[in-house]
Amino acid sequence: MKKWNITLSFLFVVLFCANVSGATVDDNVYNALAPCYSENLIASYGPVPVFDGDNKLKSAGKSTLFTDNDTFQKEWYQKMHQLYENTKCEIDEKYSYPRGPVISYGTDALGSVIIGIYEKEETDSAFREKIYSTIKSEADLLGIDDLPVIFFIAPMPELQSSRTDNWRPIIGGIQGGSDIGPCSIGFAATRNGQNGFVTTGHIGDTGATVYQPNFKTRWAQSQSLQEGQHLIHHLSSTAMLQLKSLKVL
């Protein structure tokens, strides 16, 4: 199996899982998605693209109709997006990791439904048929004929950044800090209509200044804030961070 990191090729897969409208399907797109349809392919249903052992396109499947008919392409993408929206909750609840082996689900720029199976898990034809039947039943209700579906081997995505890096937008689990020391920014929350994050209370009292990712420390007063660091004001000792006061220093 071809090993993937979060590289350009994998990002193509992720980006095209979203609702694509009017995207140009050219050699760059085929080359980026080829591994899903060749060395990483587990099973396919319907008119999917076919690649040879060198990842060269042999048959374009449903996307054959895209190059000469832009209206058909847009309408097909819209149908695929609606199909995804109507089935994503059931697929997630029944089959998504860790409840099941599915770690990615969506549609790609070639017009196929794509289901990524975690590379350390195994599935049999009966299991795949259950997932396919769920998707196909909804496709029939939407009037979608000749539905292309692929199951492919996928790696577990890995972050290339650490919790101490600069994160924009701010998310949970990364480092923040005040002049007292570091803290971990927790989960997103809303208090009295104010969006923010919950953290541990040891970061400071109400009104304390919190930075991400770096902080001024008592033992390193000479440490200066670099351009791009952000200031966040504490709302309370329960560490609700007020995002409206976020500003670049």
From TrEMBL:
Identification of the protein by name: S1 family peptidase
Organism of provenance: Methanomicrobium antiquum
